[in-house]
């Protein structure tokens, strides 16, 4: 081999390595989608923990008027991100990220005590397949929206939060349109992108066994945390740790 060619080959290899490293960019953007009967404020402590660790965290305040509207709200926030992003969904938010996760900036999905549907499934059918302990969902008088009975909210949604905090969450809950629970999901993004799942072992709003079975079906990496459905607020350090690890792994 001509020795003059060797430096050229070495330069080409070095350029390829640099290019590959650029493609495997570090993920610093995290977008969080909250669930039904709540808003994004409960994610404050977990978001601040992630912020101190160098992440740019944005919480989507979806309208909960329809699955389509909530996916659009999430995509608008994803459009604003400046690079690779990890998409996180709690509870019903898992339905949203399953479709919004197709966005080109999303590198991975994290399901936090969340529904993780397959194509053609809706929340109502999934919840009915393995009923949860909670029986506190109520309809508004017009029959268009659902909410959790404020008296049962602390036990069913946030049993491991301080009583005053759980009571305020009950009083400030966001009502969700009934059509949100009936809407069917299209092709799931978890089929083509890495996913992680947090199972809240004391969850009364979603059966923990349902969380486990959905995660297994999707091939998600699972972490179990002893917590209520409000695991993101009661165990923010542990939830932030899972999200951080997922961001680091998805960026490789």
Folded structure, characterized:
This protein has 252 residues and is of the alpha/beta class. It has a single domain, classed as Rossmann fold. The protein has eleven helices and nine strands. The strands form two sheets. Strands 2-1-3-4-8-9 form a six-stranded parallel β-sheet, with helices on both faces. A three-stranded antiparallel β-sheet has the order 5-6-7. A hairpin with a 5-residue loop joins strand 5 (137-139) and strand 6 (145-148). Helix 2 (44-52) packs across helix 11 and helix 3 packs across helix 4. The chain starts with a helix and ends with a helix. This is Alpha/beta hydrolase. Keywords: Hydrolase, Plasmid, Signal.
The CATH superfamily bears the name Alpha/Beta hydrolase fold, catalytic domain
Structural class: alpha/beta
Approximate helicity band: 40-55%
Low-confidence stretches: 6-23
State the oligomer. Answer: single chain
Overall mean pLDDT stands at 92
Outline, from the CA principal axes? globular
Domain unit count: 1
Order of helices and strands: HEHEHEHEHEEHHEHEHEHH
H/I helix tally? 11
Number of E-type strands:
9
Determine and state the CATH class. Answer: Alpha Beta
Radius of gyration: 20 Å
Identify the strand order in the major beta sheet.
Answer: 2-1-3-4-8-9
- Terminal Cα span: 35 Å
- Named at the architecture level, the CATH assignment is 3-Layer(aba) Sandwich
